[in-house]
Amino acid sequence: MGKAQYSQSEIAEALGYSQSTISREVNRNRGARGYRPKQAEEKAQKRLEEKSTGTSQRGAMVTEVRERLIRMHSPEQVSGALRPEAGKDTSRTSIYNYIRADKEAGGELHKNLRINGKRRYPHRNKTSRRKLPARVDISERPEIVNQRTRYGDGEADLIQGSRGIC
C-alpha cells in the first residue's frame, strides 16, 4: 500500500478538524522517517497513560519536590531549581496540584506554603486616610479671596477627563 499524497487541509476537511489540529498532530508525532500512524498512536497512548497515572511526578522528582516544600521553598522556587536538571522539568502549576492532592489525602504539605493559600490585603477605611496638615476649610477663607483682585485668587478646574475634555 503506497502513501496517498493529501494536503493537511484536505485531511482536516475529511476528518472534520481544523488544519492547525492536523498540523500539531503531525509535528508532535513526526520521527526520523516522517509521520507514522502506528508510532503516533503508541506515543498518544503513552502520553495519556502518564497523564492519568501521574508517572511524570513519581519517583525521585517527587521526593525532591517534597523535601524542598518542607524546607519552605515556594512552588515557583522549586520549579526554577528543578528546571536546569535534566529530566526534572516540572511546572509550578503541577506542584500546586500535587500539594492540593496531598492535602485532600490528609497530608500537611500545604502548611509549608508561605501564604497558606490565602492572600491578605490591608483594608483601608475613610478614617485611616491622611488629611493635609495645614488644611483650611473653604468656609474659613478670607473675604479678599472672594474679590479675586489678586493673582492666584481665581478658581479653575484643572482636572482633565479620560477623553481629554475639561
Write a concise synopsis of the structure shown.
By secondary structure, the protein is mostly helical.
What attributes characterize this protein structure?
mainly alpha, 166 residues, elongated
SSE string, helices as H and strands as E: HHEEHHHHH
How many helices? The count is 7
Strand order of the largest sheet: 1-2
Structural class: mainly alpha
Fraction of residues in β-strands? under 5%
- Biggest β-sheet description: 2 strands, antiparallel
What is the 3D shape?
Answer: elongated
Structure, described:
This protein has 166 residues and is mainly α. Helices cover 43% and strands 2% of the residues. The chain is built from 7 helices and 2 strands; from the N terminus they run ααββααααα. It has helices at residues 8-15, 19-28, 37-53, 60-70, 75-82, 92-104, 143-147, and strands at residues 30-31, 34-35. It has a two-stranded antiparallel ribbon. Helix 1 (8-15) packs across helix 2. It is elongated and about 95 Å long. 5% of the residues are buried. The mean pLDDT is 79.
Give me the secondary-structure topology.
Blueprint lengths: L7 H8 L3 H10 L1 E2 L2 E2 L1 H17 L6 H11 L4 H8 L9 H13 L38 H5 L19
Antiparallel strand pairs: 1-2
Helix pairs in contact: 1-2, 5-6
